[in-house]
Amino acid sequence: MRNSSQSTLTVSRQTGEPSVLLAQWIDSAADGAVLLVDFELHQWWLENKPLQPLVAIYSREGDQTLYAVTDQVVTLTEFVPYSRFRDWASRRQLAVLRPGQALGLQPTRIPKPWGQEVWFTGVEERGVCCYTDGQYATPIPWAQAAAPGVCAGASGEPLVLLKVLDPAPEEVVGDLYFELHEEKREVYVVTHVDSKAWPEGSGGIRYGFDSERLAEAESEAAFRHEYLQAVRDYERVRRQIDGLSSGTLVPQSLRDEEKARREAMNSFTHMRSLEVGDVVVVPLLMPHSLQHGVRTIEFQTPVYERQILSFAQKVLTQDHWDTESAVQQMRLTPPPDAAFELLPSEDGVVIERIVDFPDFEVLRVAIVAGGAMTLQGANTYQLLMLIEGRLELDGLQLGAENAAFLPSGQVFQFCCSDPSQPLVLLLALPRS
Predict the structure, then answer these.
(1) pLDDT above 50 for 2
(2) pTM (whole model) above 0.85
């Protein structure tokens, strides 16, 4: 097998831990040399963490190491017809990754009763997101296990969860669970408000509880008790409807009772108005429910836990609500809104820290039309989500609601592909 300079390529194969074998091989590997490593990945996101056989493939290209990973059967002899590693990988439809490069985040759509979530970094039983080189993709945990160092994120550790919430525009149908979290912190950035659902331009999120109802109650304990009773009254009707056979018409009397009980229950809560560009910081134990037709970008702690206080549809993921336990610990009012912290920046660039959680922070960056920004290397990875404009980054073509993983220690230049347009983006950084 020969490379472009007609020198003989070396192809070798070993079995074991990719990072260890790569470190042993890389110093003596000639330009164009290829190493195959057979290994098993503990699928930490699945129950019992089953093992999955994989093959990591490395190639030296000048002073760089390219890599790919696959669950396909790979033989040494199949490299013979190819003069370059990239040619072989393209035939196999494998993403070719390079340490230090920005990695595209391929969206994964997860259907929900209220609409859909669009995941970019999720790794769990319901779905596994992928990195992409702009043409082909590989699952994030595969790339992390095979990557040199932590250039794709630490192996076995989830990334900050980045997703888009895309509720249906119909009232009630598109309203999310009214829920709270004990461990998971969230921040929403509103990107679209459906004009048919909200003709006046402002959408909403059910967020905490009504201040007047709170003031009227004898005590906080009394308020919690009254709210719990209202939810129980609604849940009784909800269960009757959910228990009807598929295709059975809901009697009008039951529909009327459901609406009345739902309105009585919701009268305890506070509806916060939302417009495009608004930011909602959701602290722990804060009951919240994004409403129909309000599309948001969300960053959150990468854990799957919640307590459902109520839902105006049948819950498909569990057979119960968590109202009783949630009511005892829920926050009743949100903390005061804090002004965003403005960070030092170049001319024509505005950087706001829109949330500063213990486990991650999120920055919003606005660059004027024709401007540019140099992002200095951080000591941890960063997640980029574009909101407005177009950006070319390491061969990736990014538009609105496109996302990328930026490895630690690398410098990136941001400027809009169209100099007549401004550039607006979000950056999430985990706490190292």
Answers:
(1) no
(2) yes
